[in-house]
Design brief:
mainly alpha; 251 residues; Peroxidase_pln; Secretory_peroxidase; metal ion binding; secreted; single chain; heme
Length: 251
Amino acid sequence: MLISRNGTGERDALPSYSLRGYEQIEKIKAKLEEECPMTVSCADIIVMAARDAVFLSKGPRYDVETGRRDGKASFQCDADNDLPPPKSNIVDLKIYLSVKDLGWKDLVVLSGSHTIGMAQCGTFADDRLYNYSGKGMQDPSLNKMYAPELRKACEAGDPNDPTPVEMDPGSPYTFDLSYYRAVYNNKGLFLSDQALLDDKRTRDYVARMAAAESPDEYFTDYAEAMKNMGRLEVLTGENGEIRRVCSAYVD
């Protein structure tokens, strides 16, 4: 949430360029400051807002742990190094998560978050539609019926194309199992979605969720995975702070 005047903060990193929702977090923070000043961190607000967004999208209502404090510094390299890019293969994905003590199940479960929301064409079109592996061709694993729909939306040769595309085709506002059905049928939007089929354990989980009649198992797994992720590198005490404004200037 911190803003760098020099353009060197996390918000300036390539993985962050299409992020939205900063203003909503600030509105929530302002309301909380009116009621209980300097008590709730921006980090906790984001965690709880994510939980509520999932629930309001017909997903699970799960408990979240609170008590985080906010960081005092923001570095572009953290976002560049910590977030697996959408072109990641399954080996890279597992390495990125293992560094954070998250396992294969966390990977395949958290990937299911792509059942809601949109992505800009610039984040996937080159790798999936026009220049797979630098060969000037479409990704051969991409569903042949789905690819023309994406081509209609995304221009070739524009790495910054901001055109929004549903990450879960046909169901971008409902938290359900349709993401896994899409991936199982080679309709994953990102290479990192498609990569879930390249490992036996993640592939078996995708197949099981794609065939499931009830989302209950997934909802339980999702709550656990979000708890695991919410415990990563938490700041407490003097290691962090509570500030009145989330989007403060860091330099």
